[in-house]
Amino acid sequence: TKEQEQKHPDKLCADNFIKYISKKPGQPFFAALGFYKPHLPWYAPKRWVAKYPLEQTILPDMIENDLSDVPPIAAQWAMHPRDEETLSRYGLRKEAVRHYKASISYADEQVGRVLKAIFNSTYNGNTIIVIWSDNGFHLGEKQHWRKFTLWEEATHVPLIIYDPTIAYNGKVIDTPVSLIDIFPTLEQLAEIPAKEGVDGRSLINLTKGKALEEKVPALMTWGKDNHSIRLEEWRYTQYADGSEELYNHISDPNEFRNLIGSEGIEEIRESLQTKMANIIN
Q1: Do 11 and 110 form a contact (C-beta atoms < 8 A)?
Q2: Rounded Cα distance, 227 and 240, in Å
Q3: Which phi-psi region, left, alpha or beta, contains residue 260 (left: φ > 0; alpha: ψ -120 to 50)?
Q4: pLDDT tens for residues 23-62?
Q5: Helix, coil or strand: residue 207
Q6: How far apart are CA 115 and CA 234, in angstroms?
Q7: Nearest C-alpha neighbor of 188 from the set 157, 209, 161
Q8: 71-83 pLDDT, tens per residue?
Q9: Is the peptide bond before 38 cis (omega within 30 degrees of 0)?
């Protein structure tokens, strides 16, 4: 209902920022906002759910037996809890995707309200804005409906860096980076002296349309000693029990085919294994 929406934490979060910036805080100022949606449960205003008719909802690309070539630990993560079994039994898979999309749209609406407040204020033109998410989410890929994996769906997140003084804004960049790169990037963009001992690296070259000085894989970890690295072409994962996965994201962006055990990949596997060791050790 409209009354419930007025009390939703995400709307209140945006409301509080809009009030804050309307009071013209001193400069420089720093504001951090955390929106809850599209986190579970996927309750969204009816007006947003109506934007995604059930009959027009399309499920993600999936294949049968997609877990047949992954290590047992990965299959166990995917199958627990048994959301796929429950949603399929009751015919709710499309309904779930529909409400997920509605939840995203609701969160986008709140972000839009915040951006509008900035762009209509005296701070337009001199405020750096960074938007990101903490994790991705499976919507049935690999028979999984949550995060808690080291596959692309769970580890690929939005990251938008906007600096009004840089003409390169609005470009899509495919270079894999990590969220730990945000802090050193903001240090440089805000011309703050770099703090020693900080993980990550500045992405300022990417914001200006240039290449990074060094290609460092993005590292993801879930649980003790389970790691995955991502480069433009490859994802390599090694689990605590020594089992592995390797995907070519050029020919197989959906990570349908685990290349471990295939002919002709040993050299790239060893190279990626070395890159991972250099990061985590």
Answers
A1: yes
A2: 8
A3: beta
A4: 999 889 999 999 999 999 999 999 999 999 999 999 999 9
A5: helix
A6: 35
A7: 161
A8: 999 999 999 999 9
A9: yes
